[in-house]
Amino acid sequence: MDDDVVPAGGGSRSLKTAATVLRALRLLGDHPDGLSATDLAEELGKSAATARYMINTLCEAGYAERASSGRCRLSDAPPWGQWGTTPASPVPGDPDPGAVLAEATTELYRRTRQRSYLVRRTGTVVATVTDSRGHQGLAKHPGLGTHVAPDHAHALAMTKVLLATSAEYREAVDEEGDPLTRLTPATLTDLPALRAELDEVRRRGVALDREEFAEGFASIAAPVVSPSGAATVALGLSCSARRLALDEDELVEAVRAVAARASAHWAGEIGARPVGMPPARPDETVERDAPAARGVDELSGFSARRR
Predict the structure, then answer these.
(1) Which of 43, 167, 228, 251 is the least buried, fewest Cβ under 10 Å from its Cβ?
(2) Strand, helix or coil at 47?
(3) Residues near 159 by Cβ (< 8 Å), separated by ≥ 6?
(4) CA distances from 154 to 97, 122, 127, 237, 257 (A)
(5) How far apart (Å, rounded) are the C-alpha atoms in residues 173 and 188?
(6) Whole-model pTM above 0.70?
(7) Residue 208, beta-bridge partner list
(8) 24: Cβ–Cβ under 8 A, 6 or more apart, which residues?
């Protein structure tokens, strides 16, 4: 039996199943035209049998419905009445950041010429990539989709930041109870070592992933702190491992500076107009969620000096 197909009274395994169901609902919400069982299985990293079981259960309970195409989509309303709406601010009670976060993602790309991302913790165990900026042909971090699964959170800089700054998120991920997943030979799978690294992330205010999520690629991230002090938003970039080795200090400083500026802007401490952002290059178009292309020469931003 698949780990997520569990009988009643499954204890901690039932908690894991509940987290997977919540991820499935969010995925269906992100795809208004619906997902097939195969699509859902791929997104969740589960078997097709588990995905079919989940779809049948959600449809029977009234949370989802089958479209005429046979794909599964969210129902117009759940059993209790109406779906709630997502608050404008990623942190309830804080002011709406407006265009601050989108501007920060674009600014980070412009400063570094590396693909930049905004990742929000939108649920207890769900981290969502809500923005991605770069020019056409600039590689996306391999394997990074719309959501970061809880069992992959320890391997990516953007979610390391969220783990380090949120005890709730850290405890929810730890609650899965399984050994840390090894995604590449460089993935940190020792829990005490991960906890020590998260302590360092809190101290430095920045996280790095050195080929831990995908071989040949690295990522850097820092928190964007809301006016109330919450850190449920991470701003980061991905680049080749070679680029990180050449320009780590400059890239880290750029991520830190743009995240700090976004935090201050959100709090209303500075004006809305970005200062010092490099202008677009001639004929450059900054694209959101542009198609990834591997093997692209990324050495076009900072001077490629070796250490």
Answers:
(1) 167
(2) coil
(3) 119, 127, 148, 152, 153, 234
(4) 27, 17, 12, 16, 24
(5) 15
(6) no
(7) 220
(8) 40, 44, 54, 58
Q: Which two tokens stand for residue 39?
A: 């699509």
CA-to-CA distance for 282 and 198, rounded, in angstroms? 41
In this structure, what token pair is assigned to residue 267?
């709090």
pLDDT by residue for the chain (307 residues), tens digit each? 344 443 334 444 555 777 788 888 888 888 888 899 899 988 888 888 888 878 887 876 677 888 878 898 887 765 545 555 444 677 777 888 878 998 999 999 999 999 999 998 865 566 888 889 998 888 889 988 888 888 889 999 999 999 998 887 787 676 555 688 899 999 999 888 999 999 999 999 999 999 999 999 999 999 999 898 888 899 999 999 999 999 999 999 999 999 999 999 998 876 544 433 444 455 555 666 533 333 333 333 333 333 3
